[in-house]
Design goal:
With 72 residues, the protein is mostly helical. It is built from four helices and no strands.
Length: 72
């Protein structure tokens, strides 16, 4: 998705094709709660096409401070 590129209307078809070549296979092989992504654009692209947004690793770590033992 590369920053704002994939958010621009004229790049939507290309963004979708890039997603299908890279992320889609990984996303389909894993449960949503098992996926982490550091990049905003990566998380946004998954949200757009799969209707859920992977957590940033820091979100997972923060959850451990809020409710220890919640990772399964």
């Amino acid at each position: 998705m590369a920053g704002t590129y994939g958010h621009e209307a004229q790049n939507q078809n290309n963004s979708r094709a890039l997603y299908e070549m890279s992320w889609q296979g990984v996303v389909n092989k894993n449960k949503p709660e098992q996926l982490l992504a550091t990049g905003f654009s990566c998380r946004s692209q998954v949200k757009r096409y799969e209707k859920f947004k992977p957590k940033h690793p820091i979100e997972l770590i923060a959850e451990q401070f809020i409710s220890p033992g919640s990772i399964k």
